[in-house]
Amino acid sequence: MITIKNLVKTYTTRSKTTTALNGINLEIGKGEIFGIIGHSGAGKSTLIRCINMLEQPTSGSVWIGDTDMTRLGKRQLQRQRRRIGMIFQHFNLLSSATIYDNIAFPLRLERMSRSEIDRKVKAMLELVGLTEHATKYPAQLSGGQKQRVGIARALATDPNVLLCDEATSALDPQTTDSILRLLLDINRKLGLTIVLITHEMHVIQSICDKVAVINDGIIAEQGPVIEVFLKPREAITRDFINRESDSGEVLQEAIHALNPESSRTVKVTFIGELTYQSILSQTVKETNVDFAILQGTISRIKDVPYGQLIVRFEGNKEAIEQTLRRLIEQRLEVEELQ
Ligand SMILES: Nc1ncnc2c1ncn2[C@@H]1O[C@H](COP(=O)(O)OP(=O)(O)OP(=O)(O)O)[C@@H](O)[C@H]1O
Fold it and tell me: Which GO terms describe its molecular function (predicted)?
């Protein structure tokens, strides 16, 4: 659906040249929710803005279906952009227009008839749950409601791609969750492809199918969210994961306080149905080792439950080795920590 090939973007000012994107390659499937996560300055905004040519790439190409967006003339680009909706961190609503008129705005640009516009705006208001608020102005709405208007306006022209530029970063956690649920609902109802950028892992974990981790203008790691977050390969990915846990320092102390001769500390990950099974206790009964749980969590990545335990095994070296082998045989992910 969206293919980004060798994308490079440099910004040149009088004093310096900044390479914001340095050879990005991405493949985003139709109907996918694809998240791009990175620290401030990593290149996220530049990347998402290159998808609809709000930023002109320096080199490389961006394909949406069979269309290379980098090669379009002004008219063709305008036409293509109607197929790509976008929502923003600070909503970008017209403050002097009612909610109804904000949503009608892109439709009027398309010179739709009044009755068609009315039908479409009402359908959009219903989709985002704001029917009661049609005659209000943006200043009379909460942040979450304003973002719903942003979503309704973005979807009014029936796009097949929705770009979300830090769409929940200005919202509190509860409102963030309600907007994320709405995006997921829309993705499922309309089969819409969604590309979102964020610096919060929670956003990716809640609704994305795939994720790319961007750092210094390059993709450090990408793949299905379960793969990337539960088996991270790169330090930057681990950094995002560990930032969510506030016990990182205490845990490091606990791990380093151990006698490496008689104990081993591992992170054990249970994915899907395995999350609810008593595999650990059955295994240590067989192998006769002791264990202490240093940390435990249970959560979900989109619809898939997972559990993670940081466990210190103590006892006979051979018996610990056998325990780890048995856990792996039973399809648990085992990563040794040091
Ligand atoms: N218009 C511009 N002119 C010059 N440099 C720019 C411009 N826009 C972005 N940059 C630079 O490009 C790099 C990537 O910026 P970008 O805004 O894409 O990062 P980001 O990951 O979205 O960061 P943030 O989360 O803080 O918005 C940064 O070094 C930034 O300073």
Answer: ATP binding
Nearest residue (CA) to ligand 1, atom 17? 45
Distance 162 CA to ligand 1 centre (A): 21
pLDDT value of residue 259: 65
pLDDT tens-digit map of 229-258: 988 899 999 888 877 666 667 777 777 776
What's the CATH number for 245-336?
3.30.70.260
Q: Distance from the CA of 42 to the center of ligand 1, in angstroms? A: 7
Pocket of ligand 1 from Cβ distances under 6 Å: 11, 13, 18, 20, 38, 40-46, 199
Of the chain, the percentage scoring pLDDT greater than 70 comes to 98
**∠ Cα 245 289 338 (to 5°):** 40
**ipTM rounded to 2 decimals:** 0.97
**CA 251 to chain centroid:** 27
CA distance 166 to 168: 6
When pLDDT is averaged across residues 268-279 and rounded to a whole number, the result is 93
pLDDT in tens, 168-220: 999 999 999 999 999 999 999 999 999 999 999 999 999 999 999 999 999 99
Locate CATH 3.30.70.260 in the chain.
Answer: 245-336
Name 180's Cβ contacts closer than 8 Å, sequence gap at least 6: 168, 203, 206, 207
Q: Which CATH number fits domain 2-233: 3.30.300.30, 3.40.50.1110, 3.40.50.300, 3.30.420.40?
A: 3.40.50.300
> Measured from the CA of 42, which atom of ligand 1 is nearest?
21
**Would you mind telling me the total number of residues written for the chain in this entry?**
338
Q: Rounded to the nearest 5°, which phi and psi values hold at 128? A: -100, 5
CA of 186 to the centre of ligand 1 (A): 29
Question: Ligand 1 atom 2: the closest Cα is on which residue?
Answer: 11
Confidence of residue 11 (pLDDT cuts 50, 70, 90): very high
**pTM summary value:** 0.89
